[in-house]
Design brief:
The structure is a single chain. It contains 12 helices and 10 strands. Helix 2 runs parallel beside helix 3, helix 7 packs across helix 9 and helix 8 packs antiparallel against helix 9. It has a 5-stranded mixed beta sheet, sandwiched between helices. Helices cover about 45% and strands about 20% of the residues. It folds into 2 domains: about 130 residues, ATPase, nucleotide binding domain (Nucleotidyltransferase, domain 5, 2-Layer Sandwich), CATH 3.30.420.40; about 190 residues, Nucleotidyltransferase, domain 5 (2-Layer Sandwich). The protein is α/β, with parallel strands linked by helices. A hairpin with a 4-residue loop joins strand 1 and strand 2. The longest helix is centred in the C-terminal third of the chain and has 29 residues. The protein binds 5'-O-[(R)-(carboxyoxy)(hydroxy)phosphoryl]adenosine (KG4) and zinc ion. The site of 5'-O-[(R)-(carboxyoxy)(hydroxy)phosphoryl]adenosine has 20 residues, from helix 6 and helix 7. Its main location: mitochondrion. One of its GO terms (molecular function) is metal ion binding. It is found in: Mitochondrion. Belongs to the KAE1 / TsaD family. It catalyses: L-threonylcarbamoyladenylate + adenosine(37) in tRNA = N(6)-L-threonylcarbamoyladenosine(37) in tRNA + AMP + H(+).
């Protein structure tokens, strides 16, 4: 067929992903190798381990995606790869692979910004016109931005310290949640969501972060500190060893999740009011896109639904597999760029990048 075809490659963190999309955004083939289990066992990502696993998997992940699509490398229009932001050692694997691949097959290269790809993925699934508001929340990101075009983003707020998924993962580790029978294959965020269902959040009234700060930024380390102090106090009261608290784990989970959700909702509300006051969103069908690993949390979605309903926005949240890192979102960003002819490097150009 005459359709343009893009191979997308993602290695910025702990997922090795590849996908082939046509220019309509139809996924012709994809493959994803997750390192999450390995990193769960070591209690966090060790960059050199992530790099080794990307190296071990990149060849077959790309080969699988191509095979499943039935597309030969020679038929590709371009290769799109995440160049930033991310772990430098992880990014380097995708970039080295891509450099060799585009040289060998003489293909144009499209450098992709990982966060922009997250932000635009919803457009592959729904017709969403620019501009729209986007909230990205995961283990590595938390930001609010107005997506104004394929390469035009207005950043309204970001985390001043850690990302919400990171906070939930750290609280999960401090409570040794992977030792709980229901939780041992779950990330901290998933475990806290599950345990919070049986908890009473009012038992621990944690302070919502940044109550006095008049901007749209986030902060989660203060909350993590409050939670840690509470856990230490309870451990002392019960006379149990660190990480073996039993009695009020559900209540702590519920209070932590509630505070994260409230903080995200308040900052988003503020961003919506700012956008309205400054005419940054369209009058008809203004949209908030919610994405990232933390976006699959139903309690957080509910909190944001209340905000979007009261402000008249449409809330769109891609299904979990498109909220987390994968090759599809990178290929989709490549398609969007190809359509507009933006940011495409001709064959045989050296791929330069500065990881951040
Ligand atoms: O997008 P993702 O797979 O990877 C990056 O961080 O880039 O997101 C993973 C993060 C982890 O921190 C995990 O705890 C969090 O998303 N997460 C959740 C849930 N599922 C995953 N957090 C809260 N509730 C969930 N259901
Ligand atoms: Zn990501």
């Amino acid at each position: 067929s005459g359709s343009r075809l893009v191979l997308g490659i993602e290695t910025s963190c702990d997922d090795t992903g590849a996908a082939v999309l046509d220019e309509k955004g139809v996924i012709l083939g994809e493959c994803l190798h997750s390192q999450k289990e390995v990193h769960l066992r070591t209690g966090g990502i060790i960059p050199s381990v992530a790099q080794r696993l990307h190296r071990e998997n990149i060849e077959h992940v790309v080969r699988e995606a191509l095979q499943r699509s039935g597309v030969e490398p020679s038929q590709l229009t371009a290769v799109a790869t995440t160049v930033k932001p991310g772990l430098a050692l992880s990014l380097a694997v995708g970039l080295e692979f891509s450099q060799r691949f585009v040289r060998q097959h003489k293909k144009p290269f499209i450098p992709i910004h990982h966060m922009e790809a997250h932000a635009l993925t919803a457009r592959m699934l729904h017709p969403i016109a620019f501009p729209f508001l986007v909230l990205l929340v995961s283990g590595g990101h938390s930001l609010l931005a107005v997506a104004r075009g394929v390469d035009d983003f207005l950043l309204l707020g970001h985390s001043l310290d850690e990302a919400p998924g990171d906070t939930l993962d750290k609280v999960g580790r401090r409570l040794s949640l992977t030792k709980h029978p229901q939780c041992y294959t779950l990330s901290g965020g998933q475990a806290i969501e599950l345990l919070a269902k049986e908890g009473d959040r009012t038992k621990f009234p944690f302070r919502t972060p940044m109550g006095q700060t008049l901007d749209c930024c986030f902060s989660f380390s203060g909350l993590r500190n409050q939670v840690t102090m509470t856990i230490m106090k309870k451990e002392a009261e019960e006379g149990v060893e660190q990480g073996t608290l039993l009695s009020c784990v559900n209540d702590i989970a519920a209070a932590t999740l509630h505070t994260v959700a409230t903080h995200l909702a308040k900052r988003t509300h503020r961003a919506i009011l700012f956008c309205k006051a400054n005419h940054l969103l369209p009058l008809t069908s203004p949209t908030l896109v919610l994405s990232g690993g933390v976006a699959s949390n139903q309690y957080i979605r509910k909190a944001l639904t209340i905000i979007t309903e009261t402000t008249g926005l449409r809330l769109l949240c891609p299904p979990a597999k498109f909220c987390t890192d994968n090759g599809v979102m990178i290929a989709w960003n490549g398609v969007e760029r190809l359509r507009e002819g933006k940011g495409i490097l001709p064959p045989n150009v050296d791929i330069c990048y500065e990881p951040k």
